[in-house]
Amino acid sequence: MYRAPIEDIRFALEEIAVMDGLKTTGAFPELSSDLTAAILEEAGKFANDELAPLNRPGDLAGCKLEDGVVTTPPGIREAYAKFVEGGWQGLQFPAEHGGMGLPRALGAAVMETLQSANMAFSLGPMLTFGTIEALIAKGSDEQKAMYLPKLMTGEWSATMQLTEPQAGSDVGALRTKAEPNGDGSWSISGQKIYITWGEHDCAENIIHCVLARTPDGQPGTKGISLFLIPKILVNEAGSLGERNSIRAIGLEHKMGIHGSPTCVMEMTNAKGWLIGEEFGGMAAMFIMMNAARLAVGVQGVGIAERAYQQALAYAMDRKQGRAPGADGEPPHAIIHHPDVRNMLTTMKAKIEAARAVCYCCAVAADEAEYEEDEEDRAYAKRREELLTPISKAWSTDIGVEVSSLGIQVHGGMGFIEETGAAQHYRDARIAPIYEGTNGIQAIDLVGRKLSMAGGAPLAELLEDIRQTVEDCSTSSNPELPKLARRLGPAADALEAAAKWLIEPGRDRSDMLAGATAFQQLAGEVTGGWLLCVGAVSAQRFLKMGEGDPAFAHGKITLARHFAETVLSQAPTALSGIQCGAGLLADDTALGA
Amino acid sequence: MYRAPIEDIRFALEEIAVMDGLKTTGAFPELSSDLTAAILEEAGKFANDELAPLNRPGDLAGCKLEDGVVTTPPGIREAYAKFVEGGWQGLQFPAEHGGMGLPRALGAAVMETLQSANMAFSLGPMLTFGTIEALIAKGSDEQKAMYLPKLMTGEWSATMQLTEPQAGSDVGALRTKAEPNGDGSWSISGQKIYITWGEHDCAENIIHCVLARTPDGQPGTKGISLFLIPKILVNEAGSLGERNSIRAIGLEHKMGIHGSPTCVMEMTNAKGWLIGEEFGGMAAMFIMMNAARLAVGVQGVGIAERAYQQALAYAMDRKQGRAPGADGEPPHAIIHHPDVRNMLTTMKAKIEAARAVCYCCAVAADEAEYEEDEEDRAYAKRREELLTPISKAWSTDIGVEVSSLGIQVHGGMGFIEETGAAQHYRDARIAPIYEGTNGIQAIDLVGRKLSMAGGAPLAELLEDIRQTVEDCSTSSNPELPKLARRLGPAADALEAAAKWLIEPGRDRSDMLAGATAFQQLAGEVTGGWLLCVGAVSAQRFLKMGEGDPAFAHGKITLARHFAETVLSQAPTALSGIQCGAGLLADDTALGA
């Protein structure tokens, strides 16, 4: 059972991330609150009714590989056909390329519902998004004409092929080779691992995006190029031709997302074409990757939301013991036990905080592309750059934490597979790993994003946070100044930590030793801030008598809980960030 | 691959928990450092060579139930026979009952190695421990004579049967009925769920300890009695007689510990005998339960240690990227990356902290039984009572956290089942649930243990902690005063939080709302304190030139890392504990 939380999603999109602000860019003339609501309703229906019921059966059945053919779990082919029919794949892409011309932020919200409903299924479309982004940005006109229309409908899907056994986080160590054929095409050979939806039976063609090294490519990342390798070659007229020699030769046995085929791919002189410039592979990859990183962050939100809904339903139904002061009464539903309520409130508050971070990142990505003014675009780009690693890492950590709490709320039932809570916990665990481990995100955050543009991205964020501190402090609702009393010191702590990390002369090892702790702090402060933004908005509704007052009160409550239990901890975070590489240098301590 | 960490275990047992102090009780005349070392070596060998290799095969094969007969995974029967042969089951029980007469603390250390090697296997012996404890404390002389000898060797195993579908944490809701047969025996009927090792093919008999209600038993926990129900009835001469009507009718499909048969048990007029007094079921249960709670805490340590060893080995072997400042060199092992080292150091420090907490709890349990002086016994009992919920809950949370970090260290490989890291993560997740969920432990801690004996248990603990602050402050090694600077404020924070929770007039809901956060703080401060105790001891070795100085430095490093990253956070913990039930009362916030 999953019900897309349309009201919560709309609150995050419209009141916190202020997606409607995109209208002033002129790029989304049709965007309106009604349209957003209608699209989310429709997506929610698809997620609830078509995808969610296939989640557990897909976990049980898994994928099968026989003679290079991958069979997805029962029902997935049909669901994918409906996904194509619904036009969901092209939602967030420009109309000129065949998309629906709506914001990425709305696309992220739609994806959240699919990921909640069926994380394994949603990975297929997610990978296609990345390839579409890369082709729009770097593809030739011919490539766009040949591939985008079918990718945009989802009739063809796509993959992103970076990893090799010796080249994971260290992408530059890859060995896949591309030799020129002399006719503009290339002949690519090598093996790739962990290829999500690398082969399947849902789409009539698969467009593989593969990183490889050309003969003149120097070692490391600088010599890498990105190639487009269709599973089935496409004739000039657009019809399908010969089968290309890129094949799935193995499926991984994973702890979760069993419904998603994770393939070992082999290319033997597979025919491919450069996407963008030779040696421009990393730049092209980062276009796919940034889209994917945000999408994986949203996945963390999605799986957490699914786990939450299941835990909430269980807690409202399961009767066990009595709430304090009710001895002698018949057993109460466990939601009345303070400890269970605390778990549920923690789950919900973290989900809403992570959702807000991800949607803000998506809106920033839209603004970075579509704002009319160049400075506005640059400002938004800085915000997007800063929020991308935070969205990815913090939200996926929350996916794991919340799905674990989901099990705990169930007690013994949570450990029994039939209940379904365990599947969310197993599924959620991959998200902190793929599309750049969360450790890689932390290095990106402190090593690049903090110091870029003279530190502007964080300085600008802090300015916004302090505006919210001000807004809360001066509110007539006495709950809001309480928020300010937590948010203000948390912002100071974040600023101090960043200052320490990028101080001139800071040893790089010390900086890297503090990266993950800083990333966590940045997620907590940003997430907490956005819940406070939501609380300010909720208070405005209350004051104006608009909307459901209980809903508005709920948003203020969640912000308060997060502030007291999470933001309140920020002032002591610095010591963990500062403790440095010195304390890590002791091999004997590790038994190494 | 698992290698019992004998040196680390001995350091925790002898230097931190000061097990040797038990010699003054006179109860353990043979206890010596050499004997401890010899027993741990032998247990380690059994764990490393016999049990560890069966861990993954057992996960894959699982248990089978056919016609009431449970078949354990290949190799488990033979391993169990060797366990019996080794005399491990009786290690920690008095010689007068057929045990080896060694401390529970040493038994806990032996169990840690078995639990690391094969958590699913170790659950069988763990349940037998509890029944032995209950029979020694509450059994009649005839029962002791009839059952203890075979339980003590492990030739017979035992179970603990509390849970029913409607009676989990709320034990008092159970419906299993016992009717007197008129000959001193009882006729018991009902169904129990989640019965660990409820049926299996390793022992020739199984002694079930079952909670049931007698005809005069009032509703709730006060009307409950504990019954001994042998799988096969035992004749007066001790030979096996008729099959009793208690049977496994189902096996649960669990996320982990697949090698452990978790049974649904049905009793239809099964023949049984009271253990202790009628209506004394809860008291008898708590004897089993307290032993089991500590054992489950040790399990958290064990599974975390196993996950750690695997992650460490991978990090030393896997080459990927270069450490800071080494551009252009061939790829380094990932252990040289600060973020990976940070994960490993966090894992190791938390394991050692949790191990120390559990072993101190075990030593306290031994002292509580064997100290000559009554006041000493009472003091030790208070310590045991305080440390039992902390050992159980904090260590099992660490089991989950560390096994999750273990996956993260592996990157993509961690999510692939063949690697084994995923199994630890799946296995570890049950420990925060069974033998009283960690939420139940938190209620026990704040609801009972904090206020017992006028608050003496915590006051005494704080006194010990402050002595260590003093010891560290005055050390000639400049690292130790740094420890004191974190430990002192952490102790103050713990004291302030406890004071707030049990203040006269404190609303019970507010207290319960803060229970889990307090429990976490109590674990962190206690664990951090014990690492500091270890550091003081290590410094003594360094000063006297005894032992391996690298080993001693390592212990100081781990204490420092824990102090900077965990203890340093204690001063802000109070707000999360204090936030109270008010912020949890909002149904709309939860979408409830």
From TrEMBL, chains A, B:
Domain Acetyl-CoA dehydrogenase-like C-terminal: 461-582
UniProtKB keywords: FAD, Flavoprotein, Oxidoreductase
Sequence ranges assigned to domain Acyl-CoA dehydrogenase/oxidase N-terminal in this UniProt record: 37-155
Family annotation (InterPro entries): Acyl-CoA_dh-like_C_dom, Acyl-CoA_Oxase/DH_mid-dom, Acyl-CoA_Oxase/DH_mid-dom_sf, AcylCo_DH-like_C, AcylCo_DH/oxidase_C, AcylCoA_DH/ox_N, AcylCoA_DH/ox_N_sf, AcylCoA_DH/oxidase_NM_dom_sf
Pfam families in alphabetical order: Acyl-CoA_dh_1, Acyl-CoA_dh_C, Acyl-CoA_dh_M, Acyl-CoA_dh_N
Protein name as annotated: Acyl-CoA dehydrogenase
Family, per entry: Belongs to the acyl-CoA dehydrogenase family.
Keyword Transferase (UniProt): no
Residue runs in coiled coils: none
Keyword Oxidoreductase appears in the UniProt entry: yes
Annotated Acyl-CoA dehydrogenase/oxidase C-terminal domain residues: 281-444
UniProt domain Acyl-CoA oxidase/dehydrogenase middle: residue ranges: 160-269
Protein species of origin: Hyphobacterium lacteum
Cofactor annotation: FAD
